[in-house]
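Work Package 3 (structural annotation) set out to generate three-dimensional models for the target panel prioritized at the project kickoff. During this period the team completed the workflow that converts sequence records into discrete structure tokens, so that structures can be stored uniformly alongside our sequence database. As a representative example, we reproduce one entry of 306 residues exactly as it appears in the project archive.
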Amino acid sequence: MTGQHRTPVTVVGLGSMGSALAEAFIAAGHPTTVWNRTPGKAAPLVSKGAVHAHTMDAAVAGSPLVIACLTTFENTVEALEPAAAGLRGRALVTLNSGSPAGARQMAGWALGHGARYLGGAIKNVPSAVGAEDTLLYYGGDNSVFEEFASTLRVLGGDTVYLGADPDLAALYEMAVGGTLLPALVGFFQGAAAMQARGLTAASMVRFSVKWFEMINSVLPVFAEEIDRGDYSKPASSVNLFLAGAAHDEELGKEANLDMAWHRPFHDLLERAVDAGHGDHSISALTEVLKNGVLNNGVLKNTGPTR
């Protein structure tokens, strides 16, 4: 992207995230073609300057850079299949949920049709698309990232290339995203406990934010322990966490809460103690979670990110 030239972009999939992507490109002056299985979703974007492609052939033909934002890799292949021949020589970027295995299959399909493939992930909500601190990361064809980096940065200022393996974004997405549901359920449990006492969930938000900030501060320490494989100097031990299991049960009885979701965590703690990690750092749970099997070596180190 140089001077007044803006790379034409096609956005496939106009859910809340796909629409936010298209709006960001339009606002940045990129000629933007849009497609959605339900055509009516294109109307708000057309009113802002987008071109509505009524067929997938037209959508793919409209731009050298095709960004697919559908729910899964399977949905993406299904949508693009009618225009697969038109992908030859074009850059295809996927921004959807899915496993590393799904990303590798997606890359194989795309490369089999002559496309240049980059798999990506957005680590934020639709309303944050385009912000300077919004994180997106990508893995796959480096030439695609280099050629379209300035265009992709329209979607978020914190744009990272992870490496050549096309499943890296999906891997990081699942590795990082694994914290979301347990953290949210913990908050929801706390909200239910507050209401059981006639208090509001809002009253605990400030304290929960502080708690998450504390967790943020110790992640580098845990990561260093895990990478060194040395859990011998715990700030908080496995035994300490296991002792707290009884408190969870007491709270559940007092506030009439369903605490069954804690059981797998308590089982994990007990397995860690049985494996000799009772007096080790809580990060030693990583060793219990490992099954020691690599999937044909795909978890290899692909070098530093930038």
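The chain has 13 helices and eight strands.
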